[in-house]
Specification:
By secondary structure, the protein is mainly α. The chain contains 17 helices and no strands. Helix 2 packs across helix 8 and helix 16 (about 370-400) runs antiparallel to helix 17 (about 405-420). The radius of gyration is 21 Å and the shape is globular. The chain starts with a helix and ends in a 10-residue tail after the last helix. The mean pLDDT is about 90.
């Protein structure tokens, strides 16, 4: 196998691993069970549109001849946008590192403040070693981890299907929920669009970085398109796994999970040790799948932040990793209490709808006039991001309490990305 074919395979799995987060294991199955085939169909439409957006971003950087940070600094002259993306990446790493490691060590350290801080330190330490010691093999290690993750998800699905007794009534109800059709509603469209945004992973600059890594010998459509398709297959396999994991409980537990929103999905993951108490091997397999779902998203996202810092400051890779992951850990000291951690996550969720527009900006701001197709797809995507972002703002402010801080933090990040260029030093531009 020549180098281009080998790296094409690696990068397809790298995209799949990045796009498949921990939420894909618990939230995509919940969405599909709630909205059936109608919801899945709408989700696929949004997924295709946003996958094309990711391809456009990758190709824009690949063909520009510029490094992706340089597009913001020298071409678009919007350095504040890439800095806003960096802030979102750092906040995401602070929250996500803890959740990733807790998939393995929660039974030992718990899920409280101390447990989250310990888990965060361990995961960020592992990320630091991979990013700084692997050197030119970093991308190969990330891709290899993604390949292992896909295998783990498949093995987990098969193991659950083989070992969990077939409960005809329970499984029949789940099958009906998956295959039924529903009237299209605004709630369904909103949920489908939201899941598609998460399913592609826009807003973190990953596809811009990917475009800087490859050249015109590579086919961005094949790499990104296949990677997102693998992510979809992982979501389907995860749905089967989740349904069988609830089977030892009751049909009522399935209903609670399906219609209980994000909180019910999180609660289910916490309840699995009890539900699967008689299936320790299955419990270990699903914990391993969740862990690698986290790792394969966390490492590429860390790489994006590291490369932004390298480009903006001119420091070496080790210092850039120290600045990035050190900042994530310092934030983690304050956001390790579960309620604060949840508020941090809400801020990231709100902000990424808008940093997804920042990520798309180099495509629509190109000196070469975009084609009507590109403009149409970009317009649809921006509408999705704006509506989703405004609705996310509405939800956090409506929730009140600590979540008001989430909305304010997200607003500061977004406003800085839009209007902060005047505050960025000349050295950064």
């Amino acid at each position: 196998m020549d180098q281009v074919k080998k790296w094409t395979l690696y990068l397809m799995f790298l995209v799949a691993g990045f796009a498949t987060g921990i939420g894909s294991i618990g939230l995509f199955p919940q969405f599909w069970l709630q909205y059936g085939m109608t919801g899945l169909g709408i989700y696929l439409i949004f997924l295709v549109v946003l996958t094309y957006v990711a391809i456009l971003e990758t190709e824009r950087v690949m063909k520009s001849g510029y490094y992706f940070v340089e597009l913001y600094k020298k071409v678009a002259q919007k350095p504040a946008m890439i800095l806003a993306i960096l802030v979102v990446v750092t906040l995401f790493l602070s929250y996500y590192a803890a959740n990733t490691m807790l998939a393995l060590i929660a039974p030992i350290v718990g899920t409280g403040t101390a447990g989250r801080l310990i888990a965060k330190a361990l995961m960020l330490g592992i990320a630091f070693l991979v990013l700084t010691r692997a050197k030119e093999k970093t991308f190969a290690i990330m891709a290899g981890g993604s390949i292992f993750f896909v295998i783990a998800v498949f093995v987990t699905m098969v193991a659950f299907k083989v070992q969990i007794p077939n409960n005809a009534a329970f499984l029949g109800m789940a099958k009906h929920m998956i295959t039924t059709t529903h009237p299209v509603s605004l709630a369904m469209i909103k949920a489908a669009a939201e899941k598609a945004v998460y399913g592609v992973g826009l807003g973190f600059g990953f596809y811009l970085m990917l475009g800087s890594f490859i050249n015109e010998r590579f086919n961005a459509k094949v790499i990104v398109g296949t990677g997102i398709f693998i992510q979809l297959l992982i979501g389907i396999m995860s749905t089967i796994t989740i349904v069988y994991s609830i089977a030892p409980a009751t049909p009522a537990r399935l209903i609670e999970y399906v219609y209980g929103g994000d909180e019910a999905a999180i609660k289910l993951m916490g309840d699995l040790p009890t539900i699967l108490a008689h299936y320790p091997v299955l419990l270990a397999l699903i914990a391993l799948s969740v862990f690698f779902a986290g790792v394969t998203s966390l490492l590429p996202t860390s790489e994006v932040g590291l490369q932004i810092i390298e480009s903006l400051t001119g420091v070496g890779r080790v210092k850039a990793a120290t600045y990035l992951l050190g900042s994530a850990f310092l934030i983690g000291i304050f956001d390790s209490p579960p309620s604060i951690a949840e508020a941090t996550l809400k801020a990231v969720v709100v902000a990424t709808f808008f940093t997804a527009i920042f990520e798309l900006y180099p495509v629509i701001a190109s000196k070469e006039k975009p084609s009507p197709l590109v403009l149409t797809v970009a317009g649809i995507a921006i509408a999705v991001f704006l509506i989703g972002g405004l609705y996310a703002f509405y939800n956090v402010f409506r929730a009140g309490g600590v979540y008001i801080a989430s909305g304010l933090l997200a607003a500061i990040i977004i406003l800085f990305g839009l209007f902060g260029d005047r505050f960025v030093s000349r050295e950064a531009t």
